[in-house]
Amino acid sequence: EIVLTQSPVTLSLSPGERATLSCRASQSVDYNYLAWYQQKPGQAPKLLMHRVSTRATGIPDRFSGSGSGADFTLTISRLEPDDFAMYYCQQYGLSTTTFGGGTKVEIK
Amino acid sequence: QVHLVQSGAEVKKPGASVKVSCTASGYTFTDHYLHWLRQVPGQAPEWMGIINTSGGTSTAAQKFQDRVTMTRDTSTSTVYMELSSLRSDDTAVYYCAKAEGGVLRFPHWGQGTLVTVSS
């Protein structure tokens, strides 16, 4: 099973700042099958990115993904009030998937 | 537009079973498998299993193989997840989700069902 480690656990930033979230895998992620989700309290996770850098439908371009192999990054270029939430990375395949422990982006 | 609507919150005693439903709309139900995931409070989501909505077969993650049963009713476009021998650490929000691209990435989720296991 691939273990995903996200850092930092908490990121305290102000609106308008840049957020950089890290996701490190215990082994290389095949086919760059790495996704990012945003989750707000009381809501289901929302898919933001897949295949590392492909934005899901309706996701604004201030969100971007990068990385390869076992090291991945989600960047939010300029934080808006709606972006303060929990973020999870996920590696996925045809029949297996695991999620990272999450990074909370909070208002400083 | 894909819409997944789940049944309401449940409170169960240890050792009991719970059955959560998920009704799909906005697409052809039998054309796509559906998945179950859960999220223990303060933790990341965890994949539980998948059901073939056409044939009715299912596969559960090893952790849940002995305790989970997934079924479907094509007449109502509904899938069910029953978890037995409940323990306090089964307290979680349970989600159904529809994957895309033939892989386990999830653009579509139900609203979640909170299951609380408490004596």
Please outline what is shown here.
The complex is a heterodimer of chains A (108) and B (119). Helices cover 0% and strands 51% of the residues of chain A.
Describe the fold and architecture.
The complex is a heterodimer of chains A (108) and B (119). Chain A contains no helices and eleven strands. In chain A, strand 9 (86-92) and strand 10 (97-99) form a beta hairpin. Chain A is mainly beta and 108 residues long. Chain B has no helices and eleven strands. In chain B, strands 2, 4, 5, 6, 9, 10 and 11 form a seven-stranded mixed beta sheet that branches. A four-stranded antiparallel beta sheet of chain B has the order 1-3-8-7, with no helix packed on it. In chain B, a hairpin with a 4-residue loop joins strand 7 and strand 8. The A-B interface holds A 33, 35, 37, 44-47, 50, 56-57, 88, 90, 92-102 and B 43-47, 50, 59, 95, 97, 101-107, 109-112.
How would you describe this structure in keywords?
heterodimer, A: 108 residues, mainly beta, 7-stranded mixed β-sheet, 4-stranded antiparallel β-sheet, 0% helix, 51% strand, globular, B: 119 residues
Low-confidence residue ranges of chain B = none
- Biggest sheet architecture of chain B: 7 strands, mixed
The residue-averaged pLDDT of chain B reads 97
What fraction of residues of chain A sit in β-strands? over 45%
Distance between the termini of chain B: 40 Å
Separation, N- and C-terminal Cα atoms of chain A: 35 Å
Assign a percent range to the helix content of chain B.
under 10%
Shape of chain B: globular
What structural class do the secondary elements of chain B suggest? mainly beta
Number of strands of chain A: 11
Low-pLDDT ranges of chain A: none
